[in-house]
Design goal:
heterodimer, A: 736 residues, alpha+beta, Aldehyde Oxidoreductase, domain 4, Aldehyde Oxidoreductase, domain 3, 3 domains, 7-stranded mixed sheet, 6-stranded mixed sheet, 19 helices, globular, B: 198 residues, Ubiquitin-like (UB roll), DNA polymerase, domain 1, 2 domains, 7 helices, 5 strands, 13% strand, binds FE2/S2 (inorganic) cluster
Chain lengths: 736, 198
């Protein structure tokens, strides 16, 4: 080899084991027992001595100017200990529920009573409740500099050439609704001051980020703030900082001189803590007679609420050699969007995948064959061409009929498919590991487990590395006093934290060996890890690499083994205590997957019953097959909700949400859940990649395509509720 | 009177969705008590609750729900407050063999009844078979809906030890999970064995 050539990519010192003992197996969530017994304490559950209850004062109007506010009666109301108004006459509010103050009282009931005693007078101004209202030329200008913000065109290739090469074109407007995160634990926190130091128990996806947010918002040193999130009841992208309610909570707690709990109620949660923007796309696309895509031209828009963006990737996945797309953000008087489970992707996926089925029909091709013809080349992060046939087999794709179920009667069956991609790379996590002389192992990392199973896979990696069982490892997380780890968003946590676990546990193992080698009377390179044991090699040949496999394969012992506890006892009073962090080469980014749906539609009632979803998904090296599979189930169910159930509905006149609850904001119940068949594809050579978001992307499009296949009616808009489906069936010539 | 209106609104919000609370209307409607049972409220009233076999005496306003009394006064936080209006099941408790949404029942109304919550299911560190099944089949993620699902499953299996999938789904339809754990939940409900008849 030429000595001038760059060195080959360095093999990481703490590479993943080639024949893992725990990694890739099915391990039950280690915090399961705490959660099923009710002993897990979420932020919402925390009671502190002398704790008060806080409420936020909010605007009832979507767009209004404050005339006057009088809180004297509220201040004097029974139980009220602190009250803060943050708005002044002349100020404007831009969405219903906008925060204008806060108070704290001894009981929740007293806080609620006091809230009603605040007298507020408003000049109610015209509100924009829909994108159509906002985009009208005669619309009142509510936002500065304008109600809309048009982005620059993204262009590639030559559209004229593309459309000239097309044998067929499809033109249409596609759309997706606004959905809210609806985490079961609402946003909120408990703030407790000790002098100038603040401890906050927050329902957050980022303990370190939230500490930073408190410090910046309250203008106090980060060193004075501690944020704790031991358990949290879902975030889905909406919980990354203290938010306004957190800062107000800290301020009223300070003013009252007592801890304050400020958990939002369900309505506040729907109105003010984020949502997935709507998406609209006016598309024209061309396909050649041989089924190759030629051109894609789209004007897109959507709303992320009052002043927030709504962009999304389009076209999605498939190769359109000539394309143009211009996106316009449209602002309306509603709460702002936040990242929500694979931000942008379900929208782009829905628009593109429904279009793909329509194009396939124009060239009379099977929709899957049509997709295979237009996919980017196979790559580790682009495996769709391999996964589509795998999924097709499991959904029985060959039983598919052409568009429109010819079976007589009201019940129509149909199949559909779609594809997804996501990043899921992570970095930057740090950790600290201690091994005590009694053999106990504590790993500390300021990450959080938002329901993904992070705690469990952390324990698996540490246990794997130290030759222990999962229950011999204590994982401490969810505290900003622990070493830094990034927020849990973008499916980045596993890829950020698992390398830190591997490296830090590996370093702790090395440090243990260093410490006990003199007492064992051997050079350190003759010590290696067994299973629950430490192995001391009797020869000098490369013990680190083969001792464990030799022990397993039962070859003649070339080493003696000491129990883990006995080995740790040699440490004496000073534990092993090491820091470590994420290193390159143990994780990656870029996942791909496909989904298939099998549906049954009753064309008399318009009710869709999803019978089965098949999901083929990769996420690099699978750590815990059990929780990874659950992530897929969860993503698919969230996609099912997006497809046929949930929608934020705003009153057209007031822009107030008419379903800010959980009975009219529809989500699947147990009887709505289809059979779900998950195929997890392991790619151990790629290292760890996140899987929280990818499975949530493709379900809605697959379901919509299956409904189209069943009914013969093209539905370009979700959610496909019975009323919408019946309307479209009617428009298409009535039910047959 | 402002205060009366306020508490009445709160009260009606509570009973608006579920029907189970209607029985107490006569008991707490202020100002109309002369002919009926002795009026209590609007201030604190003594309430005795028997929860997981233990008696608790506390002072709460009559408008306080069973859920809030348990959570904020007794530190029994297994039941979660999620929708607070009878739509999600996170607050599910079992009273005399059937499930109730504790957010939609007043504490005063729950007196003299044997209230069971998820907190009282396990025997020391030995999980109840339903709890064990939820762990084994990964019927939980964030876990915020889990206490409600566990209680709904326990109530089902105490009546119907070997439910069909349809029976199990129907029994769990009053509970919502945003993380999407329903696949594991159903497996747990269909596989938990050895639940004593209630
Ligand atoms: S909190 Fe009681 S049903 Fe939702
Ligand atoms: S496990 Fe999170 S809501 Fe059900």
């Amino acid at each position: 080899m030429d000595s001038q050539a760059p060195a080959p990519a360095q093999h990481p010192k703490y590479a993943w084991p080639e024949k893992p003992r725990l990694i890739g197996t099915r391990v039950s969530r280690i915090d399961g027992p705490l959660k099923v017994t009710g002993r897990a304490k979420y932020s919402y559950d925390i009671l502190r001595p002398g704790m008060l209850y806080g409420r936020i004062v909010r605007s009832p109007h979507a767009h209004a100017r404050l005339k006057s506010i009088d809180a004297t009666a509220a201040e004097k109301a029974p139980g009220v200990k602190a009250l803060l108004i943050t708005i002044k006459p002349g100020d404007k509010v831009l969405y219903p529920g906008q925060e204008i103050g806060a108070l704290a009282a001894a009981t929740e009931q007293q806080a609620a009573d006091a809230l009603r005693l605040i007298k507020v007078e408003w000049d109610v101004l015209p509100a924009l409740a829909t994108v159509e209202q906002s985009m009208r030329p005669e619309a009142p200008q509510v936002f500065t500099p304008a109600n809309t913000r048009r982005g620059t065109a993204q262009e590639d290739g030559n559209l004229d050439t593309g459309f000239a090469a097309a044998a067929h074109t499809v033109e249409g407007t596609y759309s997706t609704q606004v959905q809210t995160h609806t985490s079961l634990e609402t946003h909120g926190c408990i703030c407790e001051w000790n002098g100038e130091n603040l401890t906050a128990w927050v329902s957050t996806q980022a303990v370190h980020g939230t500490r930073e947010g408190f410090a910046a918002g309250l203008k106090i040193p980060q060193a004075n703030v501690r944020v704790i999130t031991e358990f949290m009841g879902g975030g889905f992208g909406s919980k990354f900082g203290p938010d306004i309610q957190g800062l107000l909570c800290a301020r009223v707690a300070k003013a009252a001189g007592a801890p304050v709990k400020m958990m939002l109620d369900r309505k506040e949660e729907h109105l003010t803590t984020g949502n997935r923007p709507s998406a609209f796309a006016r598309v024209r696309a061309g396909v050649a007679a041989d089924g190759k895509l030629t051109a894609f031209d789209a004007q897109t828009w959507g709303t992320g609420g009052a002043g927030a963006g709504s962009d999304y990737p389009l076209p999605y996945i498939y190769t359109f050699p000539n394309r143009r797309r211009t996106h316009t953000d449209v602002y309306i008087n509603s709460g702002q969007q936040r990242a929500m489970r694979a931000p942008g992707h379900p929208q782009g996926c829905f628009v593109t995948e429904v279009l793909m089925d329509e194009l396939a029909d124009r060239v009379r091709m099977d929709p899957m064959e049509f997709r295979l013809k237009n996919l980017p080349p196979l790559a580790p992060n682009a495996m769709w061409a391999k996964y589509f046939p795998m999924g097709a087999e499991r959904i029985n794709w060959k039983s598919r009929h052409v568009t429109g179920d010819p079976t007589p009667g009201p019940i129509k069956r149909g199949l559909g498919c779609s594809a997804n991609r996501w990043g899921g790379a992570g970095q930057g996590a740090r950790a600290h590991c201690e091994i005590g002389s009694d053999g106990s192992v504590v790993m500390r990392c300021g990450t959080q487990d938002i329901g993904t199973g992070n705690r469990t896979i952390m324990a698996m990696v540490v246990a794997e590395t130290l030759g222990l069982e999962v229950n011999q490892v204590t994982i401490e997380l969810g505290d900003s006093n622990q070493p830094f780890a990034p927020g849990s968003g973008g499916s980045t946590t596993a890829a950020a934290v698992m390398p830190a676990m591997r490296v830090t546990a590996g370093k702790a193992r090395d440090a243990l060996f260093e410490r006990i080698a003199p007492q064992l009377g051997v050079p350190v390179d003759q010590i290696s890890m067994g299973v629950g044991t430490v192995l001391v090699s009797l020869s000098t040949r490369d013990p680190l690499s083969d001792a464990q496999s030799a022990a397993r394969s039962g070859q003649a012992p070339s080493s003696r083994s000491i129990s883990w506890r006995d080995a740790c006892r040699l440490l004496g009073t000073i534990p092993v205590s090491v820091d470590g962090q994420w290193e390159r080469g143990l994780s990656a980014g870029g996942t791909s997957g496909v989904q298939f749906a099998d549906v049954e539609v009753d064309i008399e009632t318009g009710i869709t019953k999803v019978r089965k979803i098949v999901c083929v998904q990769d996420c690099g090296l699978i750590v815990d097959a059990k929780t990874a599979e659950t992530q897929c189930y969860g993503g698919i169910i969230s996609g099912l909700n997006y497809a046929v159930f949930e929608e934020r509905i705003l009153d057209r006149n007031t822009a107030n949400m008419v379903n800010p609850n959980m009975e009219w904001y529809h989500m699947a119940g147990q009887s709505d859940i289809p059979e779900i068949d998950v195929v997890l594809v392991d790619q151990p050579e790629r290292g760890v990649i996140g899987i929280g978001e990818p499975p949530a992307v493709a379900t809605a499009a697959a379901v919509a395509n299956a409904i189209r296949n069943a009914t013969g009616v093209t539905l370009r808009s979700i959610p496909i509720t019975p009323d919408r489906l019946l309307t479209e069936l009617e428009r298409a010539g009535g039910t047959n | 009177m402002e205060e009366k209106d306020v508490s009445r609104r709160d009260f009606f919000k509570t009973v608006g969705v579920g029907s189970i609370a209607t029985a107490v209307v006569a008991g707490v409607r202020e100002g109309e008590a002369a002919q009926g049972p002795a009026a209590i409220g609007p201030g604190d009233a003594p309430v005795t609750l028997t929860i997981n076999g233990r008696r608790h005496q506390l002072q709460v306003e009559p408008r306080v729900t069973l859920l809030d009394a348990m959570r904020t006064r007794l530190d029994i936080t297994g039941p979660k407050r999620v929708c607070d209006r009878g739509a999600c099941g996170a607050c599910t408790v079992i009273i005399e063999g059937r499930t109730y949404y504790s957010c939609s029942m007043l504490a005063v109304e729950a007196q003299g009844k044997n209230i069971r919550t998820v907190d009282g299911l396990s025997q020391g560190s030995t999980l109840h078979p339903v709890q064990q099944a939820f762990c084994d089949h990964d019927g939980l993620m964030c876990g915020f809906c889990t206490p409600g699902f566990v209680m709904a499953t326990v109530a089902l299996l105490e009546k119907t030890p070997n439910p069909t999938p349809d029976q199990a789904k129907k029994a769990l339809d009053g509970n919502l999970c945003r993380c999407g754990t329903n696949i594991g939940v159903l497996k747990a409900a269909l596989s938990a064995k050895g639940v004593a008849r209630g």
